[in-house]
């Protein structure tokens, strides 16, 4: 896994994690992905915070997304597509800024991560279906966004669910 490269005090050339382990206050090991405590890596969001942000959006978030946030919080996937799942709060800000929708309660989409697989500036996320965001994952194509506010003109479904997307993406890295 490449996550270890994010630590300045880890030497990937030698695999020596001594300095990193000492700084983190964990037992010295070179198997940092296995030994590093999850509670120190991830910052799960409370169900209350997720519910508050869902209320701000005026729609229920997909169950897979809320489970991921409750278990892990916001985090990055390995690879060069720059996938970093946002908390709902950050997703609201990113959607407002990048996709031009200013009122969270009426946004037709929710961008949950950048997605630079085919083009810088794209995102992935969910489409609003009434009072909920549907579980299917879409890529939001920034170069087509000028075609109007209807997401059908600038989105493409890439997975039936967030777990399907993650598995498919991870499989594509090998």
Detailed description of the structure:
This protein is an alpha+beta fold. The protein is globular. A hairpin with a 2-residue loop joins strand 4 (123-129) and strand 5 (132-133). Helix content is 34%, strand content 16%. The protein folds into 2 domains: 3-38, no CATH class; 47-173, no CATH class. Strands 3, 4, 5, 6 and 7 form a 5-stranded antiparallel sheet that branches. It has helices at residues 18-24, 32-35, 38-41, 47-57, 63-71, 88-99, 162-173, and strands at residues 75-76, 84-85, 109-114, 123-129, 132-133, 137-140, 155-159. Residues 1-6 have low confidence and may be disordered.
End-to-end separation:
11 Å
Q: Could you tell me the mean pLDDT?
A: 83
Please give the count of helices: 7
**Strands, count:** 7
Q: Could you tell me the strand content as a percent range?
A: 15-25%
Largest sheet descriptor: 5 strands, antiparallel
* Uncertain spans: 1-6
Secondary-structure element order, as H and E? Answer: HHHHHEEHEEEEEH
Radius of gyration: 18 Å
Task: Give a quick summary of the entry.
The radius of gyration is 18 Å and the shape is globular.
Which terms summarize this structure?
two-stranded antiparallel ribbon; 174 residues; 7 strands; 2 domains; alpha+beta; disordered N terminus; five-stranded antiparallel β-sheet; globular; 7 helices; 16% strand
Which helices and strands appear, and what pairs or packs with what?
Blueprint: H1 18-24, H2 32-35, H3 38-41, H4 47-57, H5 63-71, E1 75-76, E2 84-85, H6 88-99, E3 109-114, E4 123-129, E5 132-133, E6 137-140, E7 155-159, H7 162-173
Antiparallel strand pairs: 1-2, 3-4, 4-5, 4-6, 6-7
